[in-house]
Hints:
Layout: E1 4-9, E2 15-16, E3 23-28, E4 34-43, E5 47-54, E6 66-69, E7 75-83, H1 89-95, E8 100-105, E9 110-119, E10 122-126, E11 133-137, E12 141-150, E13 158-165, E14 170-179, E15 182-192, E16 198-209, E17 215-224, E18 240-244, E19 252-257, E20 260-265, E21 269-271, E22 275-288, E23 290-295, H2 297-300, E24 303-311, E25 325-332, E26 338-346, E27 354-378, E28 381-392, E29 398-405, E30 409-415, E31 420-423, E32 426-433, E33 437-448
Parallel strand pairs: 1-12, 2-5, 3-17, 15-25, 18-22, 23-29
Antiparallel strand pairs: 3-4, 4-14, 5-13, 6-14, 7-13, 8-9, 8-12, 9-10, 10-11, 15-16, 16-22, 17-20, 17-21, 19-20, 23-24, 24-27, 25-26, 27-28, 28-33, 29-32, 30-33, 31-32
Amino acid sequence: MKRIVTVAFLLAGAACAAAGPVSVAVTVYNDNLGLVRENRVIALEKGESIYSFQDVAARIDPTSVHLKAVDNGELEVVEQNYEYDLLSPDKLYDRYIDKEVKLFLEDGGIIAGTLLSHGGGRMIVRNDESSALSVVRSDKLRNVDLAGGLDRFVTRPTLVWTVRNGGEKTRTVEVEYLTAGMSWHAEYVALADEKNESIDLAGWVSVENRSGAVYRDAKLKLMAGTVHRAPPVAPGPAYQVETMMKRGGRCVEERSLFEYHIYDVGRSTTLRDNQVKQIAFVPSTTVPVRKEYLFEAGRNGDNVQVILEFVNDEAGGLGIPLPAGVVRVFQDDGRGGSEFIGEDRIDHTPKNEKVRLVVGEAFDLVGERKVLAEKRITSRVREQDVEIRLRNRKEEAVEIKVVEAMIGDWTIEHSSHDFTKESARKAEWTVSVPPDGETVITYTVRSRW
Protein backbone atom coordinates (compact mmCIF):
# COMPACT_ATOMS: atom_id res chain seq x y z
CA MET A 1 0.00 0.00 0.00
CA LYS A 2 1.41 3.38 -0.97
CA ARG A 3 1.85 5.66 2.06
CA ILE A 4 1.25 9.39 2.04
CA VAL A 5 3.38 11.64 4.22
CA THR A 6 1.83 15.00 5.08
CA VAL A 7 4.30 17.62 6.30
CA ALA A 8 4.67 21.38 6.39
CA PHE A 9 8.17 22.81 6.06
CA LEU A 10 9.93 25.97 4.94
CA LEU A 11 12.70 26.26 2.36
CA ALA A 12 15.96 27.75 3.50
CA GLY A 13 16.07 31.52 3.43
CA ALA A 14 13.63 34.35 3.24
CA ALA A 15 13.61 34.66 -0.55
CA CYS A 16 13.86 32.00 -3.26
CA ALA A 17 14.75 31.95 -6.95
CA ALA A 18 11.29 31.29 -8.32
CA ALA A 19 12.08 32.08 -11.93
CA GLY A 20 14.49 30.08 -14.07
CA PRO A 21 17.67 31.48 -15.60
CA VAL A 22 17.49 34.06 -18.36
CA SER A 23 20.49 32.51 -20.07
CA VAL A 24 22.79 29.55 -19.45
CA ALA A 25 26.28 28.84 -20.80
CA VAL A 26 28.14 25.61 -20.04
CA THR A 27 31.79 24.86 -20.81
CA VAL A 28 32.62 21.16 -20.55
CA TYR A 29 36.20 19.96 -20.06
CA ASN A 30 37.63 16.55 -20.99
CA ASP A 31 37.72 15.08 -17.48
CA ASN A 32 34.95 15.45 -14.91
CA LEU A 33 34.68 19.23 -14.92
CA GLY A 34 32.18 21.80 -16.11
CA LEU A 35 31.95 25.59 -15.87
CA VAL A 36 28.38 26.89 -15.53
CA ARG A 37 27.45 30.51 -16.11
CA GLU A 38 23.85 31.67 -15.53
CA ASN A 39 22.13 35.02 -15.81
CA ARG A 40 19.00 35.40 -13.67
CA VAL A 41 16.60 38.16 -12.70
CA ILE A 42 16.03 37.97 -8.94
CA ALA A 43 14.08 39.94 -6.34
CA LEU A 44 16.05 41.28 -3.37
CA GLU A 45 15.17 43.53 -0.48
CA LYS A 46 17.26 46.65 -0.17
CA GLY A 47 19.97 46.40 2.42
CA GLU A 48 20.94 43.02 3.90
CA SER A 49 18.77 39.94 3.29
CA ILE A 50 18.95 36.18 2.75
CA TYR A 51 18.43 34.73 -0.71
CA SER A 52 18.17 31.07 -1.80
CA PHE A 53 19.61 30.34 -5.23
CA GLN A 54 18.19 26.96 -6.28
CA ASP A 55 18.69 24.47 -9.11
CA VAL A 56 22.47 24.45 -8.95
CA ALA A 57 24.47 21.31 -9.68
CA ALA A 58 24.48 18.70 -6.93
CA ARG A 59 28.24 18.28 -7.47
CA ILE A 60 29.05 21.98 -7.43
CA ASP A 61 32.34 23.20 -5.98
CA PRO A 62 30.96 25.84 -3.57
CA THR A 63 34.35 27.51 -3.27
CA SER A 64 34.28 28.37 -6.98
CA VAL A 65 31.00 30.32 -6.93
CA HIS A 66 31.20 33.89 -8.20
CA LEU A 67 28.22 36.26 -8.12
CA LYS A 68 28.15 39.67 -9.76
CA ALA A 69 25.50 42.15 -10.79
CA VAL A 70 25.21 42.87 -14.50
CA ASP A 71 22.98 45.90 -13.94
CA ASN A 72 23.62 49.15 -12.08
CA GLY A 73 23.89 49.15 -8.30
CA GLU A 74 26.06 47.62 -5.63
CA LEU A 75 25.59 43.94 -4.76
CA GLU A 76 27.78 42.17 -2.21
CA VAL A 77 27.72 38.60 -0.89
CA VAL A 78 28.38 38.73 2.84
CA GLU A 79 28.01 35.00 3.53
CA GLN A 80 27.34 31.86 1.49
CA ASN A 81 26.10 28.41 2.49
CA TYR A 82 25.66 25.40 0.26
CA GLU A 83 22.63 23.35 1.38
CA TYR A 84 22.77 19.79 0.08
CA ASP A 85 21.12 17.80 2.90
CA LEU A 86 18.18 17.06 0.62
CA LEU A 87 14.74 15.87 1.60
CA SER A 88 14.22 12.09 1.90
CA PRO A 89 11.86 9.97 4.07
CA ASP A 90 14.60 8.86 6.45
CA LYS A 91 16.01 12.36 6.87
CA LEU A 92 12.50 13.72 7.31
CA TYR A 93 11.74 11.23 10.08
CA ASP A 94 15.11 12.02 11.66
CA ARG A 95 14.06 15.64 11.95
CA TYR A 96 10.82 14.59 13.67
CA ILE A 97 12.43 12.58 16.46
CA ASP A 98 10.89 13.87 19.74
CA LYS A 99 8.19 15.70 17.78
CA GLU A 100 4.47 15.06 17.44
CA VAL A 101 3.29 12.65 14.72
CA LYS A 102 0.04 10.93 13.79
CA LEU A 103 0.02 7.48 12.18
CA PHE A 104 -3.00 6.32 10.17
CA LEU A 105 -3.11 2.52 9.93
CA GLU A 106 -4.45 0.42 7.08
CA ASP A 107 -7.11 -1.10 9.38
CA GLY A 108 -8.47 2.39 10.17
CA GLY A 109 -6.74 2.86 13.50
CA ILE A 110 -4.90 6.03 14.47
CA ILE A 111 -1.83 6.32 16.70
CA ALA A 112 -0.80 9.80 17.86
CA GLY A 113 2.13 10.80 20.02
CA THR A 114 5.84 11.56 20.02
CA LEU A 115 8.13 9.83 17.51
CA LEU A 116 10.96 8.19 19.46
CA SER A 117 12.64 6.11 16.77
CA HIS A 118 12.39 4.80 13.22
CA GLY A 119 14.35 2.29 11.15
CA GLY A 120 14.32 -1.37 10.24
CA GLY A 121 10.83 -0.99 8.81
CA ARG A 122 9.35 0.07 12.18
CA MET A 123 8.40 3.28 14.00
CA ILE A 124 8.21 3.69 17.79
CA VAL A 125 5.68 6.25 19.08
CA ARG A 126 4.99 7.25 22.71
CA ASN A 127 1.44 8.25 23.71
CA ASP A 128 1.81 11.65 25.37
CA GLU A 129 -1.07 11.04 27.82
CA SER A 130 -0.49 7.43 28.95
CA SER A 131 3.25 7.15 28.11
CA ALA A 132 2.43 3.85 26.38
CA LEU A 133 4.77 2.83 23.57
CA SER A 134 3.54 1.63 20.15
CA VAL A 135 5.78 -0.22 17.70
CA VAL A 136 4.27 0.07 14.22
CA ARG A 137 5.43 -1.75 11.13
CA SER A 138 5.89 0.59 8.18
CA ASP A 139 3.99 -1.71 5.81
CA LYS A 140 0.88 -1.32 8.02
CA LEU A 141 0.78 2.45 7.52
CA ARG A 142 -1.63 4.19 5.18
CA ASN A 143 -0.64 7.75 5.98
CA VAL A 144 1.76 9.66 8.26
CA ASP A 145 0.92 13.17 9.44
CA LEU A 146 3.95 15.08 10.66
CA ALA A 147 2.60 18.03 12.59
CA GLY A 148 4.36 21.39 12.89
CA GLY A 149 6.79 23.13 10.59
CA LEU A 150 10.47 22.58 9.92
CA ASP A 151 12.86 25.38 9.14
CA ARG A 152 15.65 25.29 6.54
CA PHE A 153 14.78 22.07 4.75
CA VAL A 154 15.78 21.97 1.07
CA THR A 155 14.36 19.78 -1.68
CA ARG A 156 17.19 20.36 -4.15
CA PRO A 157 20.77 21.70 -3.96
CA THR A 158 20.64 25.35 -2.96
CA LEU A 159 23.09 28.20 -2.48
CA VAL A 160 21.96 30.37 0.42
CA TRP A 161 23.41 33.85 0.36
CA THR A 162 23.40 36.71 2.81
CA VAL A 163 23.57 39.63 0.40
CA ARG A 164 23.79 43.37 0.74
CA ASN A 165 21.78 45.04 -2.03
CA GLY A 166 22.53 48.66 -2.80
CA GLY A 167 20.38 48.82 -5.94
CA GLU A 168 16.80 48.23 -7.01
CA LYS A 169 14.72 45.36 -5.65
CA THR A 170 14.78 43.60 -9.03
CA ARG A 171 18.35 42.73 -10.00
CA THR A 172 19.97 40.97 -12.95
CA VAL A 173 22.88 38.84 -11.73
CA GLU A 174 25.44 36.47 -13.22
CA VAL A 175 26.42 33.37 -11.26
CA GLU A 176 29.43 31.31 -12.29
CA TYR A 177 30.67 28.06 -10.71
CA LEU A 178 32.59 24.86 -11.36
CA THR A 179 31.01 21.45 -10.98
CA ALA A 180 32.22 17.87 -11.15
CA GLY A 181 30.35 15.26 -13.13
CA MET A 182 30.73 16.69 -16.63
CA SER A 183 33.03 15.51 -19.41
CA TRP A 184 33.22 15.03 -23.16
CA HIS A 185 35.16 13.01 -25.66
CA ALA A 186 35.36 12.65 -29.41
CA GLU A 187 34.45 9.60 -31.48
CA TYR A 188 35.15 9.09 -35.17
CA VAL A 189 33.87 6.70 -37.82
CA ALA A 190 36.04 6.03 -40.88
CA LEU A 191 34.91 4.04 -43.93
CA ALA A 192 37.86 2.88 -46.05
CA ASP A 193 37.42 2.29 -49.77
CA GLU A 194 38.25 -1.05 -51.42
CA LYS A 195 41.77 0.01 -52.35
CA ASN A 196 42.52 1.68 -48.99
CA GLU A 197 43.39 4.90 -50.77
CA SER A 198 40.84 7.10 -48.96
CA ILE A 199 38.45 7.09 -46.03
CA ASP A 200 35.15 8.82 -45.42
CA LEU A 201 35.67 10.33 -41.97
CA ALA A 202 32.91 11.65 -39.70
CA GLY A 203 33.40 12.96 -36.15
CA TRP A 204 31.11 13.18 -33.14
CA VAL A 205 31.49 14.56 -29.65
CA SER A 206 29.77 12.86 -26.72
CA VAL A 207 28.93 15.14 -23.80
CA GLU A 208 28.21 13.46 -20.46
CA ASN A 209 26.27 15.25 -17.73
CA ARG A 210 26.15 13.62 -14.31
CA SER A 211 26.47 16.85 -12.33
CA GLY A 212 23.03 16.58 -10.74
CA ALA A 213 21.42 19.46 -12.65
CA VAL A 214 19.62 20.13 -15.92
CA TYR A 215 20.85 22.96 -18.17
CA ARG A 216 18.05 24.06 -20.47
CA ASP A 217 18.70 25.81 -23.77
CA ALA A 218 22.36 26.23 -22.85
CA LYS A 219 25.07 27.69 -25.00
CA LEU A 220 27.54 24.82 -25.02
CA LYS A 221 31.33 24.98 -25.33
CA LEU A 222 33.80 22.10 -25.27
CA MET A 223 37.35 22.67 -24.05
CA ALA A 224 40.09 20.42 -25.47
CA GLY A 225 43.39 20.18 -23.64
CA THR A 226 44.79 19.17 -20.28
CA VAL A 227 43.82 21.61 -17.53
CA HIS A 228 45.83 21.15 -14.33
CA ARG A 229 43.43 20.16 -11.55
CA ALA A 230 42.83 17.65 -8.76
CA PRO A 231 42.46 13.96 -9.72
CA PRO A 232 38.96 13.07 -10.99
CA VAL A 233 36.54 10.91 -9.02
CA ALA A 234 35.35 7.53 -10.26
CA PRO A 235 32.86 7.60 -13.19
CA GLY A 236 29.17 7.12 -12.56
CA PRO A 237 26.64 4.65 -13.97
CA ALA A 238 25.22 4.31 -17.48
CA TYR A 239 23.23 7.21 -18.87
CA GLN A 240 20.54 8.09 -21.36
CA VAL A 241 21.77 8.85 -24.86
CA GLU A 242 20.49 11.70 -27.01
CA THR A 243 21.77 12.61 -30.47
CA MET A 244 21.82 16.08 -31.99
CA MET A 245 22.64 16.42 -35.68
CA LYS A 246 22.83 19.36 -38.01
CA ARG A 247 22.47 18.70 -41.70
CA GLY A 248 24.80 20.45 -44.10
CA GLY A 249 27.91 21.93 -42.53
CA ARG A 250 29.57 21.75 -39.15
CA CYS A 251 27.54 22.00 -35.99
CA VAL A 252 30.67 22.87 -33.98
CA GLU A 253 33.16 25.67 -34.65
CA GLU A 254 36.72 25.60 -33.31
CA ARG A 255 38.93 28.42 -31.99
CA SER A 256 42.04 28.81 -29.81
CA LEU A 257 41.92 29.90 -26.17
CA PHE A 258 45.09 30.25 -24.09
CA GLU A 259 47.01 26.97 -24.72
CA TYR A 260 43.85 25.00 -25.49
CA HIS A 261 41.24 24.69 -28.20
CA ILE A 262 37.60 25.43 -27.58
CA TYR A 263 34.70 24.14 -29.67
CA ASP A 264 31.54 26.25 -29.80
CA VAL A 265 28.33 24.35 -30.48
CA GLY A 266 26.40 26.37 -33.03
CA ARG A 267 22.98 26.07 -31.41
CA SER A 268 21.52 26.03 -27.93
CA THR A 269 20.89 22.62 -26.44
CA THR A 270 19.52 21.09 -23.24
CA LEU A 271 21.85 18.94 -21.12
CA ARG A 272 19.78 16.65 -18.93
CA ASP A 273 21.16 15.02 -15.82
CA ASN A 274 22.47 11.45 -16.33
CA GLN A 275 22.52 11.91 -20.10
CA VAL A 276 25.02 11.49 -22.92
CA LYS A 277 24.41 13.89 -25.81
CA GLN A 278 26.12 13.25 -29.15
CA ILE A 279 26.81 16.16 -31.48
CA ALA A 280 28.19 15.95 -35.02
CA PHE A 281 31.24 18.16 -35.41
CA VAL A 282 33.03 16.76 -38.49
CA PRO A 283 30.63 16.05 -41.37
CA SER A 284 31.47 13.10 -43.59
CA THR A 285 34.68 14.07 -45.40
CA THR A 286 36.72 12.08 -47.92
CA VAL A 287 40.35 12.01 -46.75
CA PRO A 288 43.30 10.48 -48.66
CA VAL A 289 45.09 7.77 -46.67
CA ARG A 290 48.25 5.75 -46.97
CA LYS A 291 48.33 2.11 -45.92
CA GLU A 292 51.44 0.87 -44.15
CA TYR A 293 52.61 -2.53 -42.90
CA LEU A 294 54.86 -2.32 -39.83
CA PHE A 295 57.00 -5.03 -38.25
CA GLU A 296 58.42 -4.10 -34.84
CA ALA A 297 59.50 -7.31 -33.14
CA GLY A 298 60.45 -5.63 -29.90
CA ARG A 299 56.84 -4.52 -29.35
CA ASN A 300 54.60 -6.84 -31.36
CA GLY A 301 56.43 -10.16 -31.64
CA ASP A 302 55.92 -11.90 -34.99
CA ASN A 303 52.88 -9.82 -35.91
CA VAL A 304 52.85 -7.29 -38.74
CA GLN A 305 50.63 -4.32 -37.93
CA VAL A 306 48.37 -2.60 -40.43
CA ILE A 307 48.36 1.21 -40.20
CA LEU A 308 46.31 3.83 -42.01
CA GLU A 309 47.90 7.27 -42.08
CA PHE A 310 46.45 10.61 -43.15
CA VAL A 311 47.30 14.29 -42.74
CA ASN A 312 44.98 16.62 -40.87
CA ASP A 313 45.13 19.43 -43.43
CA GLU A 314 42.75 21.43 -45.58
CA ALA A 315 43.95 19.71 -48.75
CA GLY A 316 42.66 16.46 -47.26
CA GLY A 317 39.30 17.96 -46.34
CA LEU A 318 40.11 18.59 -42.65
CA GLY A 319 42.52 21.21 -41.30
CA ILE A 320 40.94 21.66 -37.86
CA PRO A 321 42.38 20.60 -34.49
CA LEU A 322 41.01 17.12 -33.85
CA PRO A 323 40.22 16.35 -30.19
CA ALA A 324 41.39 13.06 -28.71
CA GLY A 325 39.08 10.09 -29.18
CA VAL A 326 38.52 6.67 -30.67
CA VAL A 327 38.47 6.17 -34.44
CA ARG A 328 36.48 3.12 -35.54
CA VAL A 329 37.40 1.94 -39.03
CA PHE A 330 35.13 0.05 -41.42
CA GLN A 331 36.04 -1.43 -44.82
CA ASP A 332 33.91 -1.30 -47.94
CA ASP A 333 33.41 -4.95 -48.89
CA GLY A 334 32.74 -4.16 -52.57
CA ARG A 335 29.27 -5.68 -52.41
CA GLY A 336 27.32 -2.76 -51.07
CA GLY A 337 28.20 -3.37 -47.45
CA SER A 338 30.99 -2.74 -44.97
CA GLU A 339 32.72 -4.58 -42.14
CA PHE A 340 34.40 -3.37 -38.95
CA ILE A 341 38.18 -3.85 -39.29
CA GLY A 342 39.60 -2.18 -36.18
CA GLU A 343 39.87 0.91 -34.03
CA ASP A 344 42.52 3.09 -32.47
CA ARG A 345 42.68 6.06 -30.12
CA ILE A 346 44.17 9.35 -31.27
CA ASP A 347 45.55 12.14 -29.11
CA HIS A 348 44.65 15.81 -29.53
CA THR A 349 45.95 16.46 -33.05
CA PRO A 350 46.71 19.99 -34.30
CA LYS A 351 46.03 20.84 -37.93
CA ASN A 352 48.66 19.84 -40.52
CA GLU A 353 49.85 16.96 -38.31
CA LYS A 354 49.78 13.28 -39.27
CA VAL A 355 47.28 10.81 -37.82
CA ARG A 356 48.32 7.16 -37.64
CA LEU A 357 45.70 4.51 -36.93
CA VAL A 358 46.74 1.00 -35.95
CA VAL A 359 43.71 -0.95 -37.17
CA GLY A 360 44.90 -4.54 -36.70
CA GLU A 361 47.40 -7.22 -37.67
CA ALA A 362 47.92 -8.57 -41.18
CA PHE A 363 46.71 -12.16 -41.43
CA ASP A 364 48.87 -13.06 -44.46
CA LEU A 365 52.11 -11.37 -43.39
CA VAL A 366 54.55 -12.81 -40.87
CA GLY A 367 57.79 -11.52 -39.45
CA GLU A 368 60.51 -13.46 -37.64
CA ARG A 369 63.54 -11.99 -35.87
CA LYS A 370 66.64 -13.92 -34.73
CA VAL A 371 69.97 -12.99 -33.20
CA LEU A 372 72.37 -15.23 -35.14
CA ALA A 373 75.55 -14.32 -33.29
CA GLU A 374 76.62 -12.12 -30.43
CA LYS A 375 80.08 -11.27 -29.19
CA ARG A 376 81.49 -8.95 -26.57
CA ILE A 377 84.45 -7.05 -27.98
CA THR A 378 85.28 -5.17 -24.77
CA SER A 379 83.49 -4.65 -21.47
CA ARG A 380 81.70 -1.67 -23.04
CA VAL A 381 81.34 -2.81 -26.67
CA ARG A 382 79.01 -5.51 -27.99
CA GLU A 383 78.32 -6.73 -31.53
CA GLN A 384 75.28 -8.63 -32.81
CA ASP A 385 74.36 -10.33 -36.10
CA VAL A 386 70.58 -10.10 -36.63
CA GLU A 387 68.33 -11.78 -39.19
CA ILE A 388 64.75 -10.68 -39.97
CA ARG A 389 62.57 -12.83 -42.24
CA LEU A 390 59.44 -11.36 -43.73
CA ARG A 391 56.96 -13.74 -45.41
CA ASN A 392 54.11 -12.63 -47.66
CA ARG A 393 51.24 -15.08 -48.40
CA LYS A 394 49.26 -12.55 -50.43
CA GLU A 395 48.82 -12.69 -54.20
CA GLU A 396 50.45 -9.29 -54.66
CA ALA A 397 53.75 -7.76 -53.54
CA VAL A 398 53.77 -5.58 -50.41
CA GLU A 399 56.12 -3.13 -48.76
CA ILE A 400 56.85 -3.64 -45.06
CA LYS A 401 58.53 -1.14 -42.75
CA VAL A 402 60.82 -2.76 -40.20
CA VAL A 403 61.67 -0.89 -37.00
CA GLU A 404 64.48 -2.02 -34.73
CA ALA A 405 65.13 -0.58 -31.26
CA MET A 406 68.80 0.16 -30.55
CA ILE A 407 70.71 0.73 -27.33
CA GLY A 408 73.79 2.73 -26.42
CA ASP A 409 75.94 4.51 -29.00
CA TRP A 410 75.32 2.24 -31.98
CA THR A 411 76.50 1.86 -35.56
CA ILE A 412 75.40 -0.64 -38.18
CA GLU A 413 78.56 -2.21 -39.59
CA HIS A 414 76.79 -4.14 -42.33
CA SER A 415 73.24 -4.35 -43.72
CA SER A 416 71.77 -6.34 -46.59
CA HIS A 417 69.28 -3.52 -47.32
CA ASP A 418 69.33 0.25 -47.09
CA PHE A 419 68.26 1.61 -43.72
CA THR A 420 67.55 4.96 -42.03
CA LYS A 421 68.77 6.07 -38.64
CA GLU A 422 65.43 7.40 -37.52
CA SER A 423 66.64 8.49 -34.07
CA ALA A 424 69.27 7.74 -31.44
CA ARG A 425 67.24 4.68 -30.43
CA LYS A 426 65.72 3.52 -33.69
CA ALA A 427 66.69 2.16 -37.13
CA GLU A 428 64.24 1.58 -39.98
CA TRP A 429 64.15 -0.49 -43.17
CA THR A 430 61.47 -0.44 -45.86
CA VAL A 431 61.60 -3.50 -48.10
CA SER A 432 59.44 -5.11 -50.77
CA VAL A 433 58.26 -8.68 -50.24
CA PRO A 434 57.15 -10.60 -53.37
CA PRO A 435 53.78 -12.38 -53.62
CA ASP A 436 53.84 -15.71 -51.80
CA GLY A 437 57.50 -15.07 -51.11
CA GLU A 438 60.07 -14.02 -48.54
CA THR A 439 62.55 -11.22 -47.98
CA VAL A 440 65.44 -11.59 -45.52
CA ILE A 441 67.15 -8.65 -43.88
CA THR A 442 70.49 -9.19 -42.18
CA TYR A 443 72.56 -6.63 -40.38
CA THR A 444 75.40 -6.33 -37.90
CA VAL A 445 75.20 -3.69 -35.17
CA ARG A 446 77.95 -2.57 -32.81
CA SER A 447 76.84 -0.91 -29.57
CA ARG A 448 78.94 1.06 -27.10
CA TRP A 449 77.94 2.28 -23.64
